[in-house]
């Protein structure tokens, strides 16, 4: 990784994820160029990043060994893509979740960078084979899917294109580790990647339980936040199985596998997430957290503060 120090990482897209990625890379001491095709958006992003870094420094939650001012000195904004890509060794795309938009971005980027530049997308659900279908050299392409908000939640899913070189996966893994993220490697592409496949399974069963009148929306959220989520903040489902039986996972499977299979057979069809059930669940959650921007913003700020505290505790 020492070969990348002092070189440039270009972030394409200055929205929430783009700003977060810029902050993560800055925390590792890398030069970051942030680009947006809308005039003034990238410079506005720098103002927002400055505000956040200074607040984090004041709260003693700033990542990395550099001060907020030192990190900001490594950051520049650009409205011209070619200028933004000059000197780049790693390009992190963060435009909105639209396949054609991402394909267009990577075709433009490929024409402006050298062959050794790694092209990375932040997509949360689009398949690498589709995102990079218009790229000529697909061996250097990779998905680096962060979890929102990336600055506080360290996981990054690294998903290869079928033609991605293993050295590219190795490099991305090293880079993400170096900037303090927690990368995981998927060995092949799959719809939804790993995180969203697990998340959607939880969402689907939670929705079914509320929809069928088994439990309230408030209480199913407590099942996660005060139950499963407590241990899942530190250990995952496989380790949970291993620790939840006196003699480890083999003992767990012998004790509980039949019960697991029995319960799984009772799961209903994939919910529609619409109609009467959606209206009822929306009404219920909105009674505790109104859907206007003031309440949602306050709740998101609370979430981020709690994640900051959890991140500090985990460290």
TrEMBL record:
GO terms for cellular component: cytoplasm. Homodimer. Residues 8-188 form the 3-hydroxyacyl-CoA dehydrogenase NAD binding domain. SUPFAM superfamilies: 6-phosphogluconate dehydrogenase C-terminal domain-like, NAD(P)-binding Rossmann-fold domains. The record marks 145 as: Important for catalytic activity. It is found in: Cytoplasm. Its main location: cytoplasm. Keywords: Cytoplasm, NAD, Oxidoreductase, Phosphoprotein. It comes from the Eukaryota. InterPro entries: 3-OHacyl-CoA_DH, 3-OHacyl-CoA_DH_CS, 3-OHacyl-CoA_DH_NAD-bd, 3HC_DH_C, 6-PGluconate_DH-like_C_sf, 6PGD_dom2, NAD(P)-bd_dom_sf. It comes from Triplophysa tibetana. Residues 192-259 form the 3-hydroxyacyl-CoA dehydrogenase C-terminal domain. GO terms for biological process: fatty acid metabolic process. One of its GO terms (molecular function) is L-gulonate 3-dehydrogenase activity. Its EC number is 1.1.1.45. Belongs to the 3-hydroxyacyl-CoA dehydrogenase family. This is L-gulonate 3-dehydrogenase. Pfam families: 3HCDH, 3HCDH_N.
């Amino acid at each position: 990784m020492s070969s990348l120090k002092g070189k440039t990482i270009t972030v394409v897209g200055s929205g929430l994820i783009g700003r977060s990625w810029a902050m993560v890379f800055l925390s590792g001491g890398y030069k970051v160029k942030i680009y947006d095709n809308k005039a003034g958006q990238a410079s506005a992003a720098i103002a927002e990043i400055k505000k956040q870094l200074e607040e984090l420094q004041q709260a003693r939650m700033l990542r990395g060994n550099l001060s907020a001012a030192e990190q900001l000195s490594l950051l520049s904004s650009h409205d011209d893509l070619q200028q933004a890509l000059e000197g780049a060794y790693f390009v992190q795309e963060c435009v909105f979740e639209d396949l054609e938009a991402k394909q267009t971005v990577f075709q433009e980027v490929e024409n402006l960078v050298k062959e050794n530049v790694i092209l990375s997308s932040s997509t949360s659900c689009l398949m690498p084979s589709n995102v990079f279908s218009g790229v000529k050299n697909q061996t250097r392409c990779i998905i680096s899917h962060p979890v929102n908000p990336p600055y506080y939640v360290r996981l990054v899913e690294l998903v290869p294109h079928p033609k991605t070189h293993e050295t590219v996966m190795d490099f991305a893994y090293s880079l993400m580790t170096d900037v303090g993220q927690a990368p995981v490697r998927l060995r092949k592409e799959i719809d939804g990647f790993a995180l969203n496949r697990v998340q959607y399974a939880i969402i689907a069963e939670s929705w079914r339980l509320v929809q069928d009148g088994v439990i309230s929306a408030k209480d199913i959220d407590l099942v996660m936040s005060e139950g499963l989520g407590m241990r899942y903040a530190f250990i995952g489902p496989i380790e949970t199985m291993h620790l939840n039986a006196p003699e480890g996972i083999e003992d767990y499977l012998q004790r509980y596998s039949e019960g697991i299979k029995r319960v799984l057979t009772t799961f209903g069809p994939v919910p529609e997430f619409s109609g009467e059930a959606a209206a009822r669940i929306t009404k219920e959650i909105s009674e505790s957290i109104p859907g206007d921007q003031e309440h949602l913003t306050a709740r998101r700020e609370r979430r981020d503060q709690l994640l900051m505290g959890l991140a500090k505790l985990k460290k």
